[in-house]
Amino acid sequence: MVKESQKIVAVDQDIPVIDMSLERSRVSMQIVKACETSFWFDSWSSLGCIIEKLGERGYIDLGIPKTATVGEVMAMQRRRHHRTGLLNQIEEEITKQRMCNIAGERDIALWKGEKDSYRNKFVTSETWRQIRNAKPEMEGYKGVWFSHSTPKYSFITWLVSKNRMATGDRMVLWNQHVNTSCSLCDEPMETRDHLFFVCTYSRKVWEDIAKPILQHRFSLDWKDILNYVCERDSDKTRNFIIKHVFQNTIHSVWGERNARRHGEQPSPVGKLVKMIDKNMRNKLSTIRLVNHGVDPDVISRLEQESINFFAKPVLEKKSVGSVVNRPFGYGLKNIGLKGDIGEVEYLLLHTNPLFLSQLSFGNDSTKFGSAVTCYVEAIKQLACEILDLTAEGLRLPPHTFSKLIRAVDSDSVLRLNHYPSSNQFLSGAKVSDMSVSLPRVGFGEHTDPQILTVLRSNRVGGLQVAFPDGRWVSVSPDPSTFCVNVGDLLQVMTNGRFLSVRHRAVTTGHASRLSMAYFAGPSVHAKIGPIPGIIPAAEQPRLYRTFTWADYKKFAYSLSLGDNRLDIFRSCVDEHDELGF
Ligand SMILES: O=C(O)CCC(=O)C(=O)O
Ligand SMILES: [Fe+2]
C-alpha cells in the first residue's frame, strides 16, 4: 500500500517529488480493513503511522517484523505489557482491531480528501492539495503565472514582482561601492519601480507598446500596472495579450539593462519595441477560437458526410474530381505537384457556389453538397469577423481584409483531410509490419498561403505548430473549437506585423483523424501588398512588393510544400504602388 501511494506521486514528472515517508501521516490513503495493510507503514489506527511513532527500534520493542501486515499481526500477536505508555497504547489498538474481527477481509483503500473526508475514488487534485504545503497567495500572481505564458518571462516577472532582482538599491546593500545608477537613463539610484517603467528609456518602450492597448488605464506606476494586469477581463484574448506584453517588456528591459551594464552597445527604443511586437505576433500566429457561435449541427453534418465519403472505394472517391481541374478534387498521399507525400487522403474543394454545384458525389450528392455549402457559409462569416477584429486592432478601415473574402470571385477553398488509422493505412503496410506508435508525416511542414485558415479537427490530435525557437508544439485536439492560422497573404498585407505560422500534421495511426480546413483567400486578380496605413512611414521599410494572388499561386505551384513562398516577393526598393485599399 505504501508503494501504491508513492507510485501516485511519481506519475507526472512535472509534479515535484515528495518524500512520502514525511507526508504519509497527513496524506493520502487510509486503510480501514486489514490483510494487505502494512502494520508499520500504513495509517490503520487512530495513532497514525506506527513507524513514525516508534522509529525502527519499534520492530524489536513490539517484536513485530518490518514487513508484517495488520492481518498477520491480528492473527499472530499475543498481547504484551510494556513499560512505556505508547507501546501499551499500540497493543490496545491491536486488541481493538482484533475484536473487530477483520483479519481475513480484503483491504479497501480510501483516499483522504477535503475536510478529512475519505472516499474510494482517487482525485489527483485533491491529493495534491493534501500533500502540498499551501502558502498564502502571492500578490499579483495572476500577472505572473497564467496559461500559455512563456516560462522565462514568467520567471523574471516573478522575481521582479518580489523585488528580488539585482537592482542598484539592492546591490548597494551587499557592496557599498557598487555603481547604483540606472544604466538606461543615469538616474543615480536604480530601483525596481524606477527601472520598470519610469526610467526615460523603459517608459518610452512601455508607452509605445502598451498605450494603444491599455488606453485610459495606461500607467507608469509599477503597482497600478500589476493590479491592472491581474484584473479579469471578459475578453480572454485581450487578457492574454496584456499579460504577455507586460512580461515581455519586463524581460526585454531587464535584458537591455544587463547588456549595457556589461558594456554592450545600447539598443534604441525602437529596436526593443519591434522585438516585443514580433514576439507577440509570433504568439498570436495561431489562436484557438472558443464560443465561436457556429451551429454544431452544421459542423457535425459535414463531419459525417466526410466520414462517409472517405469510407468509399478509392475509385469512387477519385471520380469526384473528374469534372474539375487539379489541384481540386480527391488526392491520395500526394500533396501539391512537387512530390510531397503524406499519410493523408483529402478532398480539396473550391468554395465558389458554381464549382460546388458542378461536383457529383454519387448518390449522396445533394446531402454532401448542402453540408459543404452550409459549413462554408458559416465559416466564411466567422473568418470575416476575425478579419474585421484584426483590422480594428490595426486601426485600419473595418472591412479592409474581409472584403477580399466576401468578393464574389474570392478564391477561398475547403480541404477535408483524412489521416487513416493504422488498419486503414494508405501505404498498404499491414498493422503488424509497423509500429503504430511512431508518428508519421501526415501533412508536411508548411505555411498556409491564403489570408487566414480556420481549421477544425475531430478528437484525434496531430496538428503541430513551429515555435520561433524551433520547437514543434502539439495543439491539443478540441472539436468544439477552431484553430485560426495566419496565412502568407496576411503576413504580406500587414507588412510582417502578423506572421504566417509553420505547421504540420503528424499521425500515429492510433485512430483516424479528420480535419476540415477553410482557407480564406482573395480573388485571383486581387493586388496584394503591405497596406499603406500599416507602414509607419520612416521607421519600417516596406517588406514586400505588390503582386496578385494569381502571381503567388503560379509561383507556389513551382515549389515544394515546405518552401518559403514569400521570399521572392520581398521588396528591395520602397515602392508606392496603388493598392486600391
Ligand atoms: O490536418 C491538419 O491539422 C492540418 C492540415 C493543414 O495544415 C492543411 O490542410 O493545410
Ligand atoms: Fe495548413
TrEMBL record:
Keyword flag Protease: no
Superkingdom, natural source: Eukaryota
Protein name, UniProt field: Oxoglutarate/iron-dependent dioxygenase
PROSITE patterns membership: FE2OG_OXY (PS51471)
GO MF annotation terms: dioxygenase activity
Ranges in coiled-coil conformation: none
Domain named Fe2OG dioxygenase: residues: 409-522
Alphabetic keyword roster: Dioxygenase, Oxidoreductase
